[in-house]
Amino acid sequence: MNDQPVTLIDQRVIEANALVPVIRAFGEKTGLETAKAVVQKTHENASRAYGRACAEKMGSNTLADLAEVVRNWAKGGALEEEVIELTKTRYAFNVTRCRYAEKYRKLGMAEFGYCLSCCRDEPFAEGFNPDIRFERRQTIMEGAPYCDFKFFLDT
Known about the structure:
The chain is an alpha+beta fold and 155 residues long. 52% of the residues lie in helices and 18% in strands.
């Protein structure tokens, strides 16, 4: 028996292997974009709830706390990040390597990557702290050279 916890990236691969065939089958009946939108909305709602749970567990929901949670997303080399700024009101970083995107590509599931993973980021921040604003203009998952994450906390 393996007592090692499943990393987040391994969890996403397991989910993708289970969900993508369902998305494709549902997409044959409703259209692929509709099927992806249903999955994305479900992930967004779950991520918002997870953000609330994380803040509650931490007992705080500052940007420094958010940065601590985000570091967990990168465990096991899943993300390579370059922190640009971390203050009480701004947290900005670029993801320069995304193994999530690499895994989805390798599995032939790149077109599902956004609705399986990236779509979770903004709702997570909303759940973590409703006063945090999130901005991201591009993702590696969608073909950009890096992901540009920016979180703002208006005080």
